[in-house]
Amino acid sequence: MKERSRTEYSLINIFTGLFGYGLNTLVGFICRIIFVRTLSADYLGVNGLFSNILSMFSLAELGIGSAITYALYKPIAENDEEKIASLMQFYKKAYWFIGTIVAIAGLLLLPFLGLIIREPPDIKENLYLLYLLFLFSSVSSYFYSYKSSLLTAVQRNYIVIGYNYIVTIVQSIFQITFLLLTHEYISYLLIQVVGGLVYNIWISYKASKDYPYINKKEIKPLSKNEKKELFINIKALTVNKLSGVLVNSTDNIVITFFNGMKTVGFASNYTLFSSILNTLITQIFNALTGSVGNLIASSDKKNQYGFFKILNLANFWLYGWAAIGMTFVSSDLVQLFYGEQFVMGLKIPLILALNFYSIGMIHASYTYKSTMGLFKYGQHILIFTGILNILLDMILGKFLGVFGIYLATLISRLLTNLWYEPYAVYKHGLKKNPAEYFIRQILYAIVLFLAGLVCWMLCRLCNFGVIINILIKIVICSVIPNVAFSICFWKTEELQYLLERLKDIIGKIIRFRR
Q1: 215: nearest Cα among 100, 66, 84, 98
Q2: pTM above 0.85, yes or no
Q3: Which has the closest alpha carbon to 192: 136, 245, 147?
Q4: Is 435 exposed, middle or buried, given 0-12, 13-18 or 19+ CB atoms closer than 10 A?
Q5: 456: region left, alpha or beta (phi > 0 left; psi from -120 to 50 alpha)
Q6: CA 464 – CA 248 distance, rounded (Å)
Q7: Which residue has the higher pLDDT, 236 or 191?
Q8: Which residue did the predictor score with more confidence, 217 or 474?
Q9: Contact (Cβ atoms closer than 8 angstroms) between residue 385 and residue 325
Q10: Which contacts (CB < 8 Å, 24+ apart) does range 350-355 have?
């Protein structure tokens, strides 16, 4: 198999991710519109609630995936097939065990669904049957998808996301067709379950075909010391995972408890836009993860630090720009695609945008923390993040409703991992003074606030039809932030580097077309 450079792999991963995601988002968005137009808001609530519950069950993964991916970087760089096969065998056994645990835990929750869903939704399907279909889809992924981590570690994430998008696009087309013909949610959900199975089996087959040595019958097991080292990282990642679940996968459950499933459906129209933008930008950073792992394994601290600053500026630019757009354009999009009755006040898109930005701004830190193997740092503070989020959810949710629940998430992050994740990377990984990072983040926040303020004042003047408002606001929320960011950071080495890389990419595209 032809070896490519780190930059080539990154570009292939990024282009595959962006192109596939753009097409997938378009088809998925059409599917969402058909969903809203053919089914009630309660079905949106069912989707959101069960997705959150199953995300909580992903806690059973216990961080094994990240620990194994990190452990794979060195043997891949050394082309040590025996060690790679040993790690994948360990990974397989762990995931089969995890899949069984998730299935049991999911079944044990069945009798308690009535405590969460105090007001039964207005749907004709049996709620427990729908839940079991969601559970089956989640459990089945553990028995196949573990092999995708090998493809990611060898910088071939473009295969993983390419296969995923092919399946989900075809899946969405079938879902659209069946919704229009039958207006039945059960057919929509069954197609989703089948699509997940097809993807997992397909990606598993691809990994086995390209790396047949991972399927040998006689594979040397990991030594006790190697397992011990893995378990140390897994233990730390378990705590991280628990925190992530308590912070990211409880909002819809709490909203259902206080406000009912219909409100979850309303809010999900807004969280959809933040999810789309987050996934789009994440495609870029996920595509770089394997390359950063290779960089960490083969370069000095100076180069690692320089590239971190570049990633951090890219983080700010993309997430800041997107957050401003979310705040001022999302309500108009909801009105256009789903109807005026689904529109919520400005404070909802604003708090969602702030949460979106807060998550995005630790992408560079998280990428470096994972690839440097700094899993143990911050594990206890992250538990506090999750507990604080639950407590604030219950308090602020009771008095401020949906806004309070999302505000609780932001506050819990600000007080804990938003400052500690980069602190750990700077102090223990890059060996730099963390104050440099925080000073830069304050500068970024000031620039973002001023750009957002100008956008708010201009967007308030838009009192035309909904389509014209959307077009004008998109222009405002694109021009103002990019001009402001360019003026403020034009002379920085980070921006000049990014511009040089952009010129190189454009040049390669032009030469390719010729």
Answers
A1: 84
A2: no
A3: 136
A4: exposed
A5: alpha
A6: 37
A7: 191
A8: 474
A9: no
A10: 351/403, 351/406, 351/407, 351/410, 352/270, 352/271, 352/274, 352/326, 352/406, 353/274, 353/323, 353/324, 353/326, 353/327, 354/323, 354/410, 355/274, 355/406, 355/409, 355/410, 355/413
